[in-house]
């Protein structure tokens, strides 16, 4: 599906590009599928294998093997617009930006639940891999999604690759490798551009529309935040758990229990799960530090 949409890309001859598919030690027929595309389009598709499972390992392997000056990233469950390559590349030609993020629009396969809001104060778009900052381009003020972003090759040479302790892997759905990389670049003084014309379409699968999926996603989101930022030195803790997280847990749980409107109530509930994830990761880090003494 994704490879077929890439085949339909409209790209002028002046832009040299290739599709590099990283097989992250998958048990399916990835090698055969990519092989058939590479045989049919030998100048376009290339296959590499990365045996260490985990999305960040696969991303870093792709970065190391890529030949281009601009590296664009897309997941294997989306459809890219026919102008995606050109639109994502355009800001690099007209500006000195470090990276570009584009739109990720949903393709609904099931009805939207009444407890889920995608706009307003209680929106929960990120869980469904949706990213849409409107029709106007400009400086990107929030992290792009990993399924539609691009960076100059030199930023990886200067700032390193994606953190391997973040990103989904076997037995863990902890994400955040893309947002952490964005924040790393911004902290170093770099800037990224939002390109609304660069569009990919992401299917909203039925399994993602379960409350349990949202709760688990936010729990892992909390764990990722602590992994990325750590616990500030001097923070008052109780058994390794920052006291401010315990206070936040009480505040968010109270909002959840006292809110009547279903969408608002569920929003506060997943924030409770997010805080629980932060507490869990903080405690585990403290435990590992104690064992290392």
| Highest CATH level, the class of the largest domain | Alpha Beta
Unreliable spans are none
CATH superfamily membership of the largest domain, which one?
A: Spore Coat Polysaccharide Biosynthesis Protein SpsA, Chain A
Label the CATH architecture of the largest domain: Alpha-Beta Complex
End-to-end C-alpha gap: 51 Å
Strand content: 15-25%
- Look up the CATH topology of the largest domain: Spore Coat Polysaccharide Biosynthesis Protein SpsA, Chain A
Structural class: alpha+beta
Order of helices and strands: HEHEHEEHEEEHHEHEEHH
Radius of gyration: 20 Å
How many structural domains are formed by the residues? 2
Number of strands: 10
Query: Which word captures the global form?
Result: globular
Describe the structure.
By secondary structure, this protein is α+β, with helices and mostly antiparallel strands. It has two domains: 2-208, Alpha-Beta Complex (Spore Coat Polysaccharide Biosynthesis Protein SpsA, Chain A), CATH 3.90.550; 211-292. The protein has helices spanning 2-7, 30-40, 55-65, 84-94, 153-159, 177-187, 211-229, 243-258, 262-292, and strands at residues 19-23, 45-49, 70-73, 79-80, 99-108, 138-139, 149-152, 192-204, 237-238, 241-242. Strands 3, 4, 5, 6, 7 and 8 form a six-stranded mixed sheet that branches. Strands 1-2 form a two-stranded parallel sheet. Strands 9-10 form a two-stranded antiparallel ribbon. It is globular, with a radius of gyration of 20 Å.
């Amino acid at each position: 599906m994704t490879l077929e949409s890439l085949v339909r890309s409209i790209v002028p001859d002046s832009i040299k590009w290739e599709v590099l598919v990283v097989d992250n030690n998958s048990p399916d027929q990835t090698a055969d599928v990519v092989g058939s595309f590479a045989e049919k389009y030998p100048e376009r598709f290339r296959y590499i294998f990365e045996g260490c499972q985990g999305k960040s390992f696969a991303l870093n392997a792709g970065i190391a093997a890529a030949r281009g000056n601009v590296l664009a990233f897309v997941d294997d469950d989306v459809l890219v617009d026919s102008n995606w390559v050109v639109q994502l590349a355009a800001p690099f030609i007209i500006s000195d930006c470090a990276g570009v993020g584009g739109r990720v629009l949903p393709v609904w396969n099931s009805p939207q639940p009444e407890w889920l809001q995608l706009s307003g104060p209680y929106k929960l778009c990120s869980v469904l891999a949706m990213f849409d900052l409107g029709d106007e381009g400009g400086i990107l003020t929030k992290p792009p999604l990993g399924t539609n972003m691009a960076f100059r090759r030199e930023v990886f040479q200067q700032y390193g690759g994606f953190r391997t302790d973040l990103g989904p892997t076997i037995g863990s759905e902890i994400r955040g490798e893309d947002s952490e990389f964005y924040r790393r670049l911004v902290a170093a003084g770099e800037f990224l551009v939002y390109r609304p014309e660069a569009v990919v379409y992401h299917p909203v699968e039925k399994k993602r529309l379960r409350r349990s999926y949202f709760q688990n996603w936010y729990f892992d989101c909390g764990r990722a935040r602590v992994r990325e930022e750590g616990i500030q030195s001097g923070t008052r803790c109780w058994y390794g758990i920052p006291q401010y997280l315990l206070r936040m847990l009480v505040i968010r749980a109270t909002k959840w229990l006292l809110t009547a409107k279903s969408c608002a109530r569920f929003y506060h509930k997943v924030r409770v799960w997010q805080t629980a994830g932060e507490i869990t990761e903080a405690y585990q880090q403290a435990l590992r530090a104690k064992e290392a003494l």
